């Protein structure tokens, strides 16, 4: 049985919830008490020494990192639909997995932590990172409906939550109309599930 | 012909140089004048709108992001050696690609930019990120020679440069003996090539 260690307000967990739902995979959800510090206590650190959610287990396999979990679920249960095996295709997608892990996490993701959750974060620096990456995404989406391969892939799911949640970090999506249209496209996918704050009115 | 847009002092470029060498792939290297700002001018931004090195082209394919380039070269030219196709295996490796893209880039990578190149960086914050991720890596390497799959993979190459270069950002590797041993193991791989500052004396 697949088990997801989950925090409902986490965009990184939301990526995984989306793919689990879109693939129609039965799973158990274990709520992690992030605000109570459960993720920094020994039991959880045994699952993920980084002390971060999500964590996914499937039989003997334990995975940390939302991108890696998307890679696993997409390859293991999605055939070539969500993550193809071709070298060039998987590399095109991997570009956005890095963007999700770095610029989107440390841009709109960090701005949201500072503004909406009052956690320690250099909000102006994060907002600057956010603006730069959103401008690149908006340009990239000129003439494209999806980030790569002309169809939804794990690249889109990896990037979606912290882009869509950007306004919670006082990062407006108004300057990025193609990004806004792409956000709505993700939210219209079969199997899409909401999270607190998403989808928001455009 | 494979073409690498390269900066010799860049750890992200070094990852790619390592795999090109270890795979014995002929390629052309194009030096990018980072200190002259070439990566922020239109010609280069046409290759990578993020304005970052490395970029790799192979025929019609243009890839940004060092992790994505390792994924491509490993799958395209390395069989199952450097990046296997099995879902669980590729996901185990993907965990470390995210770590390389985020914590290692923004930890020891950013500390080095601030200390060694006097570029804008919050050095104490970067050193703190570095210490946290190096402690996790050191624990993970207890009983392991390589990050995943009991053999060298793109996970090791993705993580190696900014770990090995950490002392240039005044991040000591002395508290992490297993990390130091792993660094030396990477440097002993057939096809290893040095870069300015690497390998350093232990």
Question: What features would you highlight for this structure?
Answer:
9% strand; four-stranded mixed β-sheet; alpha+beta; homodimer
Question: What this model shows, in words?
Answer:
Two copies of one chain form a homodimer. Chain A is α+β, with helices and mostly antiparallel strands. Chain A has seven helices and four strands; from the N terminus they run E-H-E-H-E-E-H-H-H-H-H. Chain A has helices at residues 11-22, 42-47, 66-77, 87-116, 123-140, 154-164, 177-187; strands at residues 2-6, 27-31, 55-58, 61-64. Chain A has a four-stranded mixed sheet with strand order 2-1-3-4, covered by helices on one side. In chain A, strand 1 (2-6), helix 1 and strand 2 form a beta-alpha-beta unit. In chain A, helix 1 runs parallel beside helix 3 (66-77). The first copy, chain A, is globular, with a radius of gyration of 16 Å. The mean pLDDT of chain A is 96.
């Amino acid at each position: 049985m697949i088990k997801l260690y989950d925090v409902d307000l986490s965009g990184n967990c939301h990526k995984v919830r989306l793919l689990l739902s879109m693939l129609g995979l039965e799973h158990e959800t274990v709520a992690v008490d992030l605000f109570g510090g459960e993720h920094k206590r020994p039991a959880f650190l045994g699952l993920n020494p980084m002390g971060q959610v999500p964590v996914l287990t499937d039989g003997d396999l334990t995975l940390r990192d939302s991108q890696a979990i998307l890679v696993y679920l997409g390859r293991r249960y999605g055939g070539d639909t969500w993550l193809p095996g071709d070298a060039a295709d998987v590399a095109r997608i991997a570009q956005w997995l890095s963007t999700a892990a770095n610029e989107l996490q440390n841009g709109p993701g960090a701005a949201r932590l500072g503004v909406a959750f009052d956690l320690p974060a250099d909000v102006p620096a994060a907002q600057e990172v956010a603006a730069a990456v959103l401008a690149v995404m908006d340009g990239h989406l000129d003439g494209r409906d999806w980030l790569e391969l002309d169809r939804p892939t794990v690249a889109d799911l990896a990037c979606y939550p912290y882009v869509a949640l950007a306004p919670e970090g006082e990062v407006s999506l108004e300057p990025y109309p193609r990004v806004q249209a792409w956000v709505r496209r993700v939210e219209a996918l079969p199997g899409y599930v909401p999270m607190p704050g998403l989808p928001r009115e455009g």
